[in-house]
Design a protein that fits this description.
alpha+beta; Ribosomal Protein S8, Chain: A, domain 1; ribosomal protein; 40S ribosomal protein S15a; Ribosomal_uS8; ribonucleoprotein
């Protein structure tokens, strides 16, 4: 299995939304992907999802609503402690000021 499973799954969802499909099939299955889809369902970005045969390679069928415009994942995952979360966000994620600098130039 590849290391960018979540990123590939999110790109599949975005591409299916752009083409106007009602559902998308994601494979292989991971627990992180299922947790992320649960959050997307809770916030109203997808209608529902079903995990088929999770103990093997399996697949996930996602029912789409048409609300996802763009969605990406950071291509690597790091285990960090909760105490260092704010420090990590300010160091690793891009700032809002970057857009202003590029707009001026």
């Amino acid at each position: 299995m590849g290391r960018r499973i979540l990123n590939e799954a999110l790109r599949t969802i975005v591409n299916a939304e752009k083409r106007g499909f009602a559902s998308a099939e994601l494979n292989p299955v991971s627990n992180v992907m299922a947790s992320f889809l649960q959050i997307m369902k809770y916030r109203g970005y997808i209608k529902d999802f079903q995990v088929h045969d999770a103990h093997r390679v399996g697949k996930i069928t996602v029912q789409l609503l048409g609300r996802v415009k763009d969605c990406r994942a950071i291509t690597y995952r790091q285990d960090i402690k909760a105490d260092y979360l704010e420090k990590y966000k300010t160091r690793a994620l891009p700032t809002h000021q970057v857009r202003v600098v590029f707009a001026i130039q």
